[in-house]
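Reviewer comment 2.1 asked that we show a complete input and output for one of the modelled complexes. We chose the magnesium ion case, as it is the one discussed in the main text.
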Amino acid sequence: MESIPVMLISSDNASRSELKNDLEKFKYIDIVGEFDDLMEGFNFIINEKPSLVFIDVSSAPTVAIDAIEKINFQLRSCLVYAISNNTDPEFIIQVMRAGAREVFGKPVAQAEISSVLDKAKHLLKTSADSFTEGKIFTVFSNKGGIGKTTIATNLAVSLAELTKKRVALVDLNLQLGDVTTFLDLSPSYDIAYIVTQISRIDESFLIKTLEKYQEKELYVLADPPYLEQAEEITSEQIGTVLNALKSVFSYIVIDTSSAFDSKTISALDLSDDILLVSIVNLPSIRNAQRCLDLFERLDYPREKVKMVVNRYIENEEITVDDVEDALNHNVYWKIPNNYFTVMSAINRGMPICEINKDSNVNDSFFGLAAGLSNSLYVKDKDQNSSNSGNSIMASLLSKMNLPKGKK
Ligand SMILES: Nc1ncnc2c1ncn2[C@@H]1O[C@H](COP(=O)(O)OP(=O)(O)OP(=O)(O)O)[C@@H](O)[C@H]1O
Ligand SMILES: [Mg+2]
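Response of the prediction step:
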């Protein structure tokens, strides 16, 4: 059977190594980390996502309970077990309410470990079958004015329409965000508020504080109104918020600035797919090459980076083949140039599907959403398609479940 990654946190070294020895008697247990410091252990858990965690809550109970609550919320499929010197029933209830599945006294008996592991094997199997975390798509380019916000906004709307699942659109262009302008929203809350409320983040909090877009399953997390607020947000906080969004939304679309700063990298790290946007001209292609080089240095898998050519015009001097050859990376998607439709959408603060749902550019966004979400998008038969054939390709590829554009 597959091994089960387990983490131990306890400042009581003797008890921790005893528990470790007992757990290692089970061949399928893989101790991926052991910490005496709660905060270090917590950060490791959030990044490494072990299946089982044992936390000693004896020495710093308040922090430990808080950590259990957050692990439980952010990593739903992780099972947390507590160990405690304190056997006061009130206290035990508190620990269980935070999300610990069981609380053991010290030392944990071998028979208890064995019974816990039996139950855990079963629970892990059922949760793997039933729960999948949301996917993060980040729209990025290190060049400004290339269409990132147009793509992020319309992709998010298309995903919500097409999949009918919950979608979050996050404006990580923290200093010069445009998402609220593109969708004509005046949100009550923004990301600067949410990061001050990290301990309160749960499903109902997120649904209440993100701005719902009309009747769609689309929720917007806006940039802060003041520049100083943007500066105060840390990349760790961005990571925490994005992980929280993953447990509530099926898709998270992130719009970014053109900066390669630590906040953007934190989002890029956590992304399932990076949509690297370029247009077909030399400076833009050169910039895309720089991004690809950096992504390689960051050890991102090749298929995580999807090239999107925006403002595509058939029969241009530089072809898509030329772009692919220059970058040694396939073009995943082409979005046609349609200045009139895109500008009317932006000027009216509406998504493209509400301006002209029959336009080639709207069709392209639905095709892109279908490809990324593995859903089917078939354009109405009676509509005369004027696009580049992207949507049919998306439907076919989504059915075959093959990665597109891999060289
Ligand atoms: N497919 C398209 N066809 C025609 N025009 C487009 C298309 N996509 C974007 N544009 C135009 O490009 C301009 C810039 O778009 P957008 O604001 O989305 O870029 P950005 O990369 O988010 O810019 P910034 O770096 O300032 O955030 C807009 O005025 C928009 O009209
Ligand atoms: Mg923008």
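The first helix runs from residue 13 to 24. We note this here for comparison with the apo prediction described in Section 3.2.
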